[in-house]
Amino acid sequence: MSFYKEDVDENSDEYDEYSEFSSVHYTTESTDNSTEYELSFNEGINYVLSEIRMPDQQVRLYTSHAQIIEDTIIRAMSRYDPYFKNAFKGLSLGGSYLDHLKICLPDEFDMHVKIYLGCHLEPVPVQGIPGYVFLRANNEYPHKCIKHFRNGWFVDRIAVQQWFRDIISAVMDEIQYIRISRRYCYTMSYKKQGFGVAHNLVATDTKNSDRQISFDFVPVFEFEAKQFPRTMESVPNKGRTWFAVPRRFSAKWKDDSRSFIVCAPHWERIVLKNKQNLKDSLRLMKRFRDANDMGALVSYKLKSLYLRELTKSRVNWDWPPGEILIKMLFNLLWSLYQKKLPFYLNTKHNLLNEISDRDRYRYISILRSHAGKLASRRKQNYLTSDDMYNIFGIDDQSQCNSEYEDD
């Protein structure tokens, strides 16, 4: 039995051109020592895509194992705590896997754990802090996650995370070993314990410690599309629901235990649908990030860059993936120069608020170099094996993995 509830099928302040940046470092002639023209530009890009593609057999294997592990965890939590059993309303897949944007191994699963506390909740936009809501209860309700504040009863984010932390910690002995079949058995460890956003559990194959599956369980509250705050962006939603995710304010604001950030993965998926070249370009950008150790640019930030561009209609998404990538790398460069990347669901919320200047300057340097080289290679219509290694980390012994999926 699976707990999945969803079908998982499938005013410009940004720089609009990239010629200024690319001309700074590269002319239209090759400047490296390699004289080997191995592939045309598009052939080279397609080769990189083939190298980061998730193998079908591995997808089936990891997915089937992941569902058994998830079910085992949720069943154990439900047996331990009857309040959780009553509150649990299903798992909803999120992150790169939902959007079919995962690269390399399908070994990370972002799971929204839908919770209903038995009373009506009203999402209230937080004044002066874009993208966040408080969840106000209609009256006093006997649940430890709903507490009284100065202006009423609200869901307490910290209490929700502590509730999950207590349950998961209590069942760890029971789920320590999860057998999938005679061949596969996993040991479980509880890593990140919800002090940020997710409760991270890692399953390790007992016969091969290098084989792991990571799960980020995030407690969320689900709302109808019509309940989305009118003060935020109006985006296509086709009546799909959205979530309030427990997350503290960024460091510039004083913490409030009522804080939740809005999240609408199925709305974002709507606008990405049937745009295969866009998705391939985003996969390439994620690989570029991994190869160049740009860990502060977690996958949702890169996805947001594309979502923002979709609202502007300045890119032809039928362009080949390599062409789109060049355009978007220069868009990313401009965002880093400005230290500004608007949140798709509320453009007043800046996703780059907390990136350090040290990381930002280093990323700008990397992008100026590699985006310029890609633009030059595209103009000359070739890509060498050195290029594929230096820009994307692809060689004959590539270890394809991603450490920066979602925050």
Structure description:
With 407 residues, this protein is α+β, with helices and mostly antiparallel strands. The protein has one domain: Beta Polymerase, domain 2, CATH 3.30.460. Helices cover 38% and strands 21% of the residues. It contains 12 helices and 14 strands. The chain has helices at residues 19-25, 41-52, 56-80, 82-87, 95-98, 157-171, 265-272, 276-291, 299-310, 321-338, 357-380, 385-392; strands at residues 88-94, 108-115, 121-125, 132-137, 146-149, 152-155, 177-179, 185-193, 199-205, 208-223, 242-246, 260-263, 342-343, 346-350. The strands form 3 sheets. Strands 1, 2, 3, 4, 7, 8, 9, 10, 11 and 12 form a 10-stranded mixed beta sheet that branches. Strands 5-6 form a two-stranded antiparallel sheet. It has a two-stranded antiparallel sheet with strand order 13-14. A hairpin with a 2-residue loop joins strand 9 (199-205) and strand 10 (208-223). Helix 3 packs across helix 6 (157-171), helix 8 packs antiparallel against helix 9 and helix 10 (321-338) runs antiparallel to helix 11 (357-380). The longest helix is centred in the first third of the chain and has 25 residues, at 56-80. It is globular. The chain starts with 18 loop residues before the first helix and ends in a 15-residue tail after the last helix. The relative contact order is 0.17. Residues 3-35 have low confidence and may be disordered.
